[in-house]
């Protein structure tokens, strides 16, 4: 049965703040299931002076130094990764995140707004991590740095620092946002489980013609289907999320209802975090699980089932 996602009533009409390459502005109906964790550039500008706002530039330190939103602090992938494993990309534990945020001067009651310049998949990884530790006051800047500039806001090269704090994540954790290797193996072995496994990488990675650094071999997890993360973003222009209608059309291929389980993965859990955000927040799927280890971990173990296209075997 083809998926017909029952979306909530239209929340409001937004005027797109970013002009993109063609320098035009369009009015769009944002009837997403939820926009609780999404913020537009003009909305951010309106609360810019709020003392309980912390803006996070989730890009490399080099890119941050070249120009960033005034007042934003820099966090990068290495800051939120567990480096104790023989493969890269696994999320840092709760205590390490608390130490990092305390050092950066983030308060427990701050609103955290995250942006990048790649179409939000880096920002989505930090959103996904914080949500998994049940920290809910976090939003992704729709369109990222591109839309901030498109709305006429200036950048700065001046770094910012805040006095250290004592930041603590909630005691409760939302572990259902993630799935680990062992649980995924169990789901694959359960013929009665109604799940879809979605590979969000490029088609070359999916079919096995490209192997990225960090992976032990080329291929994909057995029985996974391919939906490139980038389809959900207007990468050529605004770098914003596509409309609810466009997203529904893209993910109709899942042929699932909103209560079924969807497991998403990529190379190291970043691009799949973006797909997690799209499915869970914007389209309202209730059981979306992001495989933290993704292909880097799965490919490391030779006994785990995987596939490549027949011409590549």
> How much helix, percentage-wise, in residues?
25-40%
Strand count, sense and barrel status of the largest sheet are: 5 strands, parallel
What strand line-up does the widest sheet have?
3-8-7-4-6
Strand content: 15-25%
CATH classification, class level of the largest domain: Alpha Beta
Poorly predicted parts: 1-17, 19-29
Count, helices: 10
User: How many domains?
Assistant: 2
Give the full name of the CATH homologous superfamily of the largest domain: Rhodanese-like domain
Class from secondary-structure proportions? alpha/beta
Order of helices and strands: EEEHEHEEHEHEHEEHEHEEHEHEHE
Shape: globular
Termini separation comes to 33 Å
Q: Write down the Rg.
A: 19 Å
- In total, how many beta strands? 16
Mean pLDDT comes to: 89
CATH architecture descriptor of the largest domain: 3-Layer(aba) Sandwich
What is the fold-level CATH name, i.e. the topology of the largest domain?
Answer: Oxidized Rhodanese, domain 1
């Amino acid at each position: 049965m083809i998926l017909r996602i029952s979306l909530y009533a239209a929340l409001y009409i937004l005027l797109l703040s970013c002009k993109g390459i063609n320098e035009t502005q369009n009015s769009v109906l944002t009837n997403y299931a939820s926009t609780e964790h999404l913020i537009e550039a003009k909305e951010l500008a309106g609360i810019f002076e709020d003392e309980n706002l912390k803006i996070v530039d989730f890009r490399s330190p080099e890119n941050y130094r070249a120009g960033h939103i005034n007042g934003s602090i820099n966090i990068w992938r290495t800051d939120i990764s567990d480096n104790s494993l023989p493969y890269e990309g696994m999320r840092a534990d709760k205590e390490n995140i608390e130490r990092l945020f305390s050092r950066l001067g983030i308060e427990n009651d701050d609103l955290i707004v995250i942006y990048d310049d790649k179409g939000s998949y880096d920002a989505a990884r930090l959103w996904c991590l914080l949500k998994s530790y049940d920290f809910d006051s976090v939003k992704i800047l729709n369109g990222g740095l591109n839309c901030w500039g498109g709305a006429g806001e200036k950048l700065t090269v001046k770094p910012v620092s805040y006095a250290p704090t004592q930041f603590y994540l909630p005691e409760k954790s939302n572990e259902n946002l993630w799935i680990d290797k062992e649980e995924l193996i169990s789901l694959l072995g359960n013929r009665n489980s109604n799940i879809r496994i979605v590979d969000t990488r490029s088609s070359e990675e999916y079919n096995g013609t490209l192997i990225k650094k960090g992976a032990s071999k080329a291929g994909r997890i057995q029985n996974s289907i391919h939906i490139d993360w980038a389809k959900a973003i207007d990468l050529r222009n605004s770098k914003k999320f596509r409309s609810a209608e466009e997203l529904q059309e893209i993910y109709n291929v899942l042929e699932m209802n909103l209560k079924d389980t969807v497991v998403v993965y990529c190379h190291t859990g970043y691009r799949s975090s973006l797909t997690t955000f799209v499915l869970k927040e914007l389209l309202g799927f209730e059981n979306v699980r992001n495989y933290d280890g993704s292909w880097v971990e799965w490919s490391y173990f030779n006994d785990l089932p995987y596939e490549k296209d027949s011409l590549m075997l």
